[in-house]
Design goal:
17% of the residues lie in helices and 35% in strands. With 155 residues, the chain is an alpha+beta fold. The longest helix is centred in the N-terminal third of the chain and has 22 residues. Keywords: Signal.
């Protein structure tokens, strides 16, 4: 009889623990549907801001810093208010002025129909953008080798 009680208690305890483990998962992991995976490039660290016109130093931004192998894990979810995602790249190349993300083209002068200028935002950070599908409410991001920036858009 005692053996039966211990078995029932053990089964009940396992049932309770399994329910707790499931409910302890982040709610974001259960609610968001993946819409698209985007690939961009940046040779250094990246900051992603929650609103498109937000400055580099906005509270709540994602800061992705490469480890020695050039990678990061996926970030936590970041709530975004628009399908256009503003991110900043800090190029670690000694040729950062030649990095394609640093160049902008300005049309419309008489002497030179195309003027090229370097667009440095602040302390070597370059403003970039990506576009998620309509309905995007959250993103996650990670850095990888070969200058990879992977942004995943969620609904």
């Amino acid at each position: 009889m005692k053996h039966y009680h211990w078995s029932a208690i053990a089964v009940s305890a396992l049932s309770i623990l399994s329910n707790l483990a499931f409910s302890a998962l982040p709610s974001a992991a259960l609610e968001h549907k993946e819409l698209e995976k985007m690939t961009d490039r940046c040779s250094g660290d990246v900051i992603i801001v929650p609103t498109y016109n937000a400055p580099l130093t906005t509270d709540g931004s994602l800061y992705l810093k490469r480890d020695r192998s050039g990678n990061t894990d996926f970030s936590d979810y970041l709530r975004v208010d628009d399908r256009q995602i503003r991110w900043y790249c800090k190029s670690n190349s000694s040729y950062s002025a030649l990095d394609p993300g640093a160049w902008r083209i300005k049309l419309g002068t008489i002497l030179s129909p195309v003027q090229v200028k370097v667009a440095i935002v602040k302390d070597g950070w370059f403003a970039e953008r990506s576009r998620c599908p309509a309905g995007t409410s959250h993103i996650r991001a990670r850095l990888g080798t070969d200058r990879l920036l992977r942004i995943v858009c969620y609904k």
